Amino acid sequence: VTFPALEKEQYIGGTAEFVFDNSIINGLNMIEGTRAKVSFRHYEGISDKEQSFSNLKVDVRHYQKLHRQLVLAFRGFYGSFMGRDPKQYLLGGVDNWVLRDENTEGSGNPLNTSRERSNADLLFVEYATNLRGFDYAQFFGNNVLLFNAELRMPIVQYLSGGPISSNFFRNLQFTGFFDIGSAWSGKSPFNEDNQISNVEINQGNFDIDLRNYRNPWLYSYGVGLRTMLLGYYVKFDVAWPVEDFVTQDTRFHLSLGYDF
């Protein structure tokens, strides 16, 4: 199968995956057990070998029952583009975000329309979510590392001892969450010489490496509500994002679909 991006860009590719799943679904957005998936895909440029690239993803999730329907959920995600023409991860935001916001700044940002780019840079881009409190593409790079933790409590089910006829109240769920992640190209955020904490400045005949000591990690914490509404599973989150050790303005997210 070929995947045309531009008239002169054609790819042939394949994907290999390993999946582990011993989880049990106890209701809407209510899971116990562990899930994991490791995937590797490669796209070979047909007309130009310099357009070839690969992608590795590792996604591990664990849902720990604490008491009755009270569950603590964890997720760790790592992704890396590699090869001759690696693509980018866009870190930030949530899946199926209603009235979404996105960051279009930065010379290397695929969402920046001020400079001409190959369509393949958008066709193969990967969104890395959830990082609540931030725009899509708040950070971007060839690599991404993301951790999520959520405490999930079906409020009415947990407090009630009998059947609940209302679909709205039966699926009403309270969550508390913490998200942290980073996206980068080059050296990782664990290295003090990473691209976020350091800036290269070219002034005439001089090249300056300036260390600005910016925190290469974005994180947020907050609370949320989930339930069925008009046939859709609706999520509402209130997040307090923290960038470069400074807590930013409160952000609100309205989105559709289940959590991780």
Main β sheet profile: 11 strands, antiparallel
Structure classification = mainly beta
The helix/strand order is EEEEEEHEEEHHEEEEEEE
Helix content: under 10%
The N- to C-terminal Cα distance equals 30 Å
| Uncertain segments | 1-6
* Rounded average pLDDT: 91
Query: β content, as a range?
Result: over 45%
Alpha plus pi helix count: 3
Radius of gyration: 21 Å
How would you sum up the global shape?
globular
Number of strands: 16
Description of the structure:
- With 260 residues, the protein is mainly β.
- The protein is 5% helix and 53% strand.
- It has helices spanning 120-123, 155-159, 167-170; strands at 11-21, 24-27, 30-45, 53-67, 70-83, 89-91, 126-128, 139-141, 143-154, 173-184, 198-203, 206-211, 218-229, 232-243, 246-247, 251-256.
- The strands form three sheets. Strands 1, 2, 3, 4, 5, 9, 10, 13, 14, 15 and 16 form an eleven-stranded antiparallel sheet that branches. Strands 7-6-8 form a three-stranded mixed sheet, with no helix packed on it.
- The radius of gyration is 21 Å and the shape is globular.
- The model is unreliable at 1-6 (pLDDT under 50).
